UniProtKB/TrEMBL annotation, chains A, B, C, D:
Gene of this entry: HOM2
Upper taxonomic lineage: Eukaryota, Fungi, Dikarya, Ascomycota, Saccharomycotina
Chemical reaction(s) catalysed: L-aspartate 4-semialdehyde + phosphate + NADP(+) = 4-phospho-L-aspartate + NADPH + H(+)
Residues of the active site: C156 (acyl-thioester intermediate), H256 (proton acceptor)
Entry EC number(s): 1.2.1.11
InterPro entries: ASADH-related, Asp-semialdehyde_DH_CS, Asp_semi-ald_DH_pep-lack, NAD(P)-bd_dom_sf, Semialdehyde_DH_NAD-bd, Semialdhyde_DH_dimer_dom
GO biological process, one term: threonine biosynthetic process
GO molecular function: aspartate-semialdehyde dehydrogenase activity; NAD binding; NADP binding; protein dimerization activity
Record's function text: Catalyzes the NADPH-dependent formation of L-aspartate 4-semialdehyde (L-ASA) by the reductive dephosphorylation of 4-phospho-L-aspartate. Mediates the second step in the biosynthesis of amino acids that derive from aspartate (the aspartate family of amino acids), including methioinine and threonine, the latter of which is a precursor to isoleucine.
Name of the featured protein: Aspartate-semialdehyde dehydrogenase
Entries under Pfam families matching the protein: Semialdhyde_dh, Semialdhyde_dhC
Stored CDD domains: ASADH_C_arch_fung_like (cd18130), ScASADH_like_N (cd02315)
Length: 366, 366, 366, 366
């Protein structure tokens, strides 16, 4: 067995951090080598610092690790840093790691809109990683030490949306309009305190702060192209892609369900329903092609049963890295509509982070 | 206290029938005088025939009523017949009552699309009742005995949708496009067996058989005008109003939440967000104006809090006869979007039936 | 209509305080006249200070009341003070009100175990109020001004337990052993943050901090007698009554379900199952006898259906002031077992407070 | 890899049958070779006959198997028959398989109380299998063909109860009294229709037909000894062990939580709390010792956190074959109390069946 790369986890006691640690415990490429959290937790054994809330047990190899403060000097030797930090703290901490030369893969929203930072759903736009690959190669060619860089994981509800849109855009040309209504799981809201039970039992909360704006904006970055000079992105304009999102919280533990309608830009060659379905079935992403250990067998599963996908039944396909698409049908206003299900803490958060790191390793920049 | 009118209830042991009986027990205009059910239940006391599943107790005055078969001869003397029959049985039974001269207000879908039958949400299109009023008056003027007639209650998810659309259409002209995604309560699925627990716990079911088609079609009848001769309706065409619906079942006991986007037909005078909001706030329906006992104080409540309406908190406004509208905002694809909450078994089913009957009484045809 | 008495509410923005205000808005004897909360809320209109989480709307008459700090000088003229304060703050604040001569009815646990303070479930041991009545009468007879006093509401899960035990003890003599396992609603955990959604969805939490000890201790005070001098209580010893409690949180919004087994002390005349059932059916409490406005018609409902009581169907009997008992049967270890359902925020909290105040008014000490 | 044994599954389309097929798909000893169901399903491919409701996908190797009628002639060559049949059908069908010489491991209740049939929780009383082992060996020694036999899986809630009681009884002598209150998952109720959503959302159902009687009786067979002649069991009498059960259904998908109090028979040497805890921690069952592939690493996990075990967090320990025990403490009426969590469809149903078969294979009688 080859020696594993070392990973650091920032925000290790939070909900995203816990998920990173759980996924790393099953990962064949990375080890959770250093765990960082607030100064309140630093110095304690991880098992004493964390209130473990995952449905699998705390991995034995992480139990006794001593939690460190989130400072670069404690993470020396880590090939990659996964950040599950809250947005409140992520900004300066992640910057300090990038400045110290680390490769940071972050679930926080802070740097997603920075032009030079790739915003990546790894089964969708792994080609965006070329921007940081170019930067590293350029430094190497100049004999400079490897520069630090940041890659951002997308918002969880955005991830579910763009996975099926990508192959459609690739095959049938740009998508002009997307209307999406989400029914999102409570695990996306974290633990402290997360969604109160009284708000979610026998209820729907038709609002998630900031979420709709994230979906409407991030989709335009994820679905765009790397620019000509290879150091940034040709962000789609509102005239190229308009997304309208309505976000709701429902009584589901894991798995975001999204009802999506869309219309293609090219009106003279709108594909048939069968062509759309086939396109989704045929899709294979770069992470799968390259053989990344966490890559799903299929990035997309197209379900033909009339009442699928359902979170309880479909969220764990390919360990949560696959997205399920069902109820594909024509739409009387747009071109088509469908229901998309994605695992919000895997492909929508920590899992994407790990698959991004596996891609970065394949591309030789870790 | 004036003497109450007598009401018969068909399908009295089912979920809609139970709700009719509960609402009638609190109604000042109608008494549940005759209860009809299948021959299996006929002859038993109601309390022995029913598996009562309401959150209020079985009303004392109905407990000992002997259940009758659903045949007109057992309902003589009833001013109105409320039908909570399953569609499987409703067709011939309701016809036999209409043929026998009864006024039938039905929750079943069987006659909703018959051109001469009004399909009514009582806080929306009570003017459609004129078609049956005209028929009765004509018979009277000809010295004929009062003819039977049928009025249909709309589908529950359609009811929530059309309530806010009606005042908008009245004030700002026709609506061209409506996209709606629903999150529907399980009480709408009835009891036998209804939605299984294992399908709804920690889950969303993205499909309700026939529901999307009902929403897309019924809205065009409810929002149309009575025809020139007063004996039918000028159904809206697909070119006048296009509705696209996506229907989901969620873990909510009562209350359908709907995310709605819409676009007006008239592009030269699209109202502002404030005008839309004011229009909804100002709306007062005929049932309220006429002083129908069950009419809501306001057919629509506009909520300004960012995270409302919510089923658990808002479904019982004005005893479930009011619809709550929140999250009104501009839509980057359509004109506006909003979240609508309606009580599916009150304004979406039995409650509408009773308010329709109160309107028919006011209009002098019971 | 007679003029209402004035009530003050301490902790008015919290979950218990909100319930007090809701119940007072429907009460014919008391008005919510002064609302007290933390200094952070003081000075604001109530509707601006509160995050209202009740399923009925914020009562109109309370919306614009200016929130006061919890100091006696702001509550002058109030006949009674209802305290919904957190235990963290209740101690000195309630003491300052008692010292200032107010009648305080508190939901906090702080003074429950003080020997001279009655711990009352109003449909169970209203005779314990004699201790404060005696104190007031004595002061009056001595020409002194009316002294302040405190009455404590019991813990919510204790309330459900003792209601059926009281008539059994009255009729068949002391109860020696009680084993109880609870399945408690999340509304009992308050709002900030209360039970997190992720802890309660598809889950049971087999622990509620301090709850089992409260049940095991409080039952011995509530079920005891006033002492010979009328100024305190002959607390039951562990040898007289032993309670063993196991407390769980389940996914229910309102309503505590408790599985109870018990054994009588007197072994020579253990009643039959029918006698036990009849005793519970026959029970009528003093609050009902005196005609207190909030008193239930029956303090106990005995249900014969095999699968009742259920929280969703039975919690609102007599507006939540009645307790439902079902599944009465012999127990092979104890004498009998049963399932008891009580509304935890009505008879288990704020509702009991209001009914206690109505009893105090009837007894002439407000 | 050794050749797997062939397993037949009766009732393959039902909820227990589905779980058998899922577990067999991951089992290294048995293959699901023949699938039996009703004549309505017979002749179809399994994937067309079943409404698959498991959270893992239908195993590929079972999809295209042609469903057979439940007749022995279609199962020739199977080493073991797993029955997930409903009690309504299980009686004569299972008998026909035993008569035809098959080893039948059944989840149905029909033969559990037959004196010669072992009722087995495989991590508890695997020694009861000696009764059928003896029968087979005797036949062999007489040169007779291998006789068919039946082994019954216990009721799901009984399984959770007896696992921790067994080591306590082994070490500290007989247990005299057990009081247990259950909070049971809905997956135990099957699919058709199972527990209706409206009964379980925001609710507790304090009744499961027949369940309490099963717990009170089955525990006395499972915890008893094989008789002196090795062909049956010395069932415990009511005077030796008295169990009082109160069973409830709660809103949990998988995992039964049980609050258990118990008292030992021997009063002169009652163990300490620490001794009880250590005894549970030290327990290792025969299935683990023998290296059965499905055996848990530990039959019992003792949790020290005050709020554990919880179904969502602990039900999958050792793939659902382990039972979790928490909240161990002294009981003021009995000796001790604890909370026990077991996976009702694994150790409480199909999983136990498979582990029983693995034990039978180790003992040489398949």
């Amino acid at each position: 067995m080859p020696i594993k790369m070392k990973a650091g986890v920032l925000g290790a006691t939070g909900s995203v951090g816990q998920r990173f640690i759980l996924l790393l415990s099953e990962n064949e490429q990375f080890d959770a080598a250093v765990l960082g959290a607030s100064s309140r937790s630093a110095g304690k054994k991880y098992q004493d610092a964390v209130v473990w809330k995952q449905t699998s047990l705390l991995p034995g190899e992480s139990k006794d690790l001593i939690v460190q403060e989130c400072k670069p000097e404690f993470f020396i030797g880590c090939n990659v840093i996964f950040s599950g930090l809250d947005a409140e703290y992520a900004g300066p901490i992640e910057k300090s790691f990038v400045d110290a030369g680390f490769a940071v893969v972050s679930n926080a929203k802070n740097y997603r809109r920075v032009p030079s930072v790739p915003l990546v759903v790894p089964t969708v736009n792994s080609e965006h990683l070329e921007v940081v690959v170019n930067r590293v190669k350029q430094a190497r060619s100049q004999g400079l030490s490897k520069p630090g860089f940041e890659v951002c994981i997308s918002n969880c509800s955005t991830a579910g949306l763009v996975v099926p849109l990508k192959p459609l855009q690739d095959k049938f040309g740009p998508i002009r309009f997307v209307a999406v209504t989400t029914m999102q799981a409570i695990s996306g809201a974290g633990f402290s305190p997360g969604t109160p039970g009284i708000d979610i039992l026998d209820n729907v909360v038709p609002y998630i702060s900031g979420e709709e704006d994230k979906m409407e904006w991030e989709a335009k970055k994820i679905l765009c192209s790397v620019n000509g000079t290879g150091d940034g992105f040709d962000l789609l304009s509102d005239d190229q892609l308009t997304v309208s999102a309505q976000c709701n919280r429902v009584a589901v533990s894991d798995g975001h369900t999204e009802c999506v309608s869309w219309k293609f830009t090219n009106r003279d060659k709108v594909p048939s329903l069968e062509e759309v379905k086939q396109c989704l079935k045929d899709y294979s992403c770069e992470a799968t092609e390259l053989g990344c250990p966490s890559a799903p067998k299929h990035a997309i599963y197209v379900l033909d049963e009339p009442d699928r996908p359902q979170p309880r039944l479909d969220r764990n396909r390919d360990r949560g890295y696959a997205v399920s698409v069902g109820r594909l049908r024509e739409d009387p206003i747009f071109d088509f509509k469908m229901t998309v299900l994605s695992h919000n803490t895997i492909i929508g958060a920590a899992g994407s982070g790990i698959l991004i790191a596996e891609l970065l390793a394949k591309k030789g920049v870790l």
